[in-house]
Amino acid sequence: MTSASLEREIGRRRTFAIISHPDAGKTTLTEKLLLYGGAIHLAGSVKSRRAARHATSDWLEMEQERGISITASVLHFDYQGFRINLLDTPGHQDFSEDTYRALMAADSAIMLLDNRKGVETQTRKLFSVCRRRRLPIFTFVNKCDRVGTDPLGLLDDVQNELGIRCFVATWPIRENDRLIGVYDRAAEQVLLYERTDDHGQSRPAARSLTLDSAELDEQLGATAAATLREEIELLDIAAEPPDWGAVARGEASPVYFGSALTNFGVDVFLERFLAAAPPPAPRESTNGPIDPVSEPFSGFVFKVQANMDLRHRDRIAFLRVCSGRFEAGSEATVSRTGKSLRLAEPQEFMARERTHGTEAVAGDVVGLHDRGNLRVGDTVAVDGTLEYPGVPRFSPEHFAQIRMEDALRRKHLDRGLRHLAEEGTILLLFAPSITGPVPIVGAVGRLQFDVLVDRLEREYSVTVRLDPLPFHCARWVQGPDKDIEKTAGAYGRRRVEDTDGHPMILFDNEWALQRSMSQDDTLTFFDVQPRKPVD
Ligand code: G4P
Q1: CATH classification of 398-526 is 3.30.70.3280, yes or no?
Q2: 147 with 182: CB under 8 angstroms?
Q3: Nearest 5 degrees, angle CA 295-CA 301-CA 305?
Q4: Residue nearest to atom 17 of ligand 1 (CA)
Q5: Does 358 score more than 60 pLDDT?
Q6: Residue ranges of the domains in the chain?
Q7: Which of 20, 28, 196 has most ligand 1 atoms within 8 Å of CB, for mutation?
Q8: Which CATH fold topology does 3-179+241-276 show?
Q9: How far does residue 24's CA lie from ligand 1's centre (Å)?
């Protein structure tokens, strides 16, 4: 591949995630993006297939049983010359750590809001991650087929709640409380959709008109047409003006209105979003910013998943390519260990249906077969001195001790725990005791414990019981060992170590933690895992 064609290929990549609170319509919108991209032919198939236990983006059986999407998966397809890499993010809040990781791999995000609910808890949390990364955020206000909060009121809420400037990119057009179209401000066009009677399974026909056309009066009636003209005039005069430079810096968000269910407003949103969303940009590393086109291959692992297919007992590391081209057969180095790694043929993902991919460039996500060499956060690069900042590991809030039913399966348990900890499903900790280190598991959400028990049983044939421990927060800690011992020795605390030997202290309540942080001045506390092993 010449450097001009590499540049062209990278330039057409759009790698993004959808952030939303559960129920805002992420599955429905994803399905519509797939429908428009030609990746599926009838919308509704994701859901009906879920019912048939073959869901496109659900891997684990448990997810399918519970009907929630737990693990992040990657969907990729072509649309109007763009290569779309859609990082699916788990909707359930207990899996927000997976979502954080997916956002590390994204170049932009779609923030999906319910038109009656606006900003919700999960939206707020995920937005703050995007903010920290200065990701460009495109807002889609969904469910506008139903009457919701007044559009400008909703924009105000978003601005006040999230502190991001918002400007209207498309405006909903209603007729007797029914959504009939949107006004596209960039193209200065009114789009009126034809209703379909297939419940949004196919793309509706749209007619485009100018705001001043006489046909608009015929279609909407003179009064509604006049109202629309007034609304748009008011937007032009009084509302926040479009500022695409600020969008690129993550300081402002264009807002689109529509309905993922009826597809109204989805086509224009998708087109505008793809045109304005950034292709892969230089990323910060220990060697300075890495240009996606001119630097040789580099990337980082944002997710590891074991046993995706029990028949093969394989383990896949998901790597976001940050620069250059992934070439099967070439060598790269894992920066953390300094070990060289032969890049095998990548597995590309259309969720479960794996196809062998032959080409991956910056912006793409590849799945690599792994035999335990890779971990979440690892940089893999031709230049082994280069390291990306890594993927933060958040301190858990739930802790439990593991009890085994059958002591003879201890080795299997250890292997299972190690694998699942490397995936990031749980944090594996060890508490010192006279009989040897006692394994303790920590998780950000309780549901992760259910997943752990379920997967240990299913994938490692080990039956365990988890006894909850009375701790609710934890911090990694650095400082003189005797001071760590002293702090951890107080009532309601426990000293543990993670699998890298980093000491941690578990606290029974937030107040005790805060007190320790303000009083124990020889110690430094971290709420994300320190990168380097402590000497
Ligand atoms: P999620 O992935 O964000 O959790 O949301 P999902 O797409 O599953 O949608 C949640 C519910 O909201 C679904 O209804 C879905 O049909 C509905 N929904 C999604 N987009 C729209 C929209 O544009 N307008 C309206 N009115 N509803 C929308 P459900 O009753 O829970 O499921 P179902 O029986 O419809 O499948």
Answers
A1: yes
A2: no
A3: 150
A4: 25
A5: no
A6: 3-179+241-276, 298-381, 398-526
A7: 28
A8: Rossmann fold (3.40.50)
A9: 7
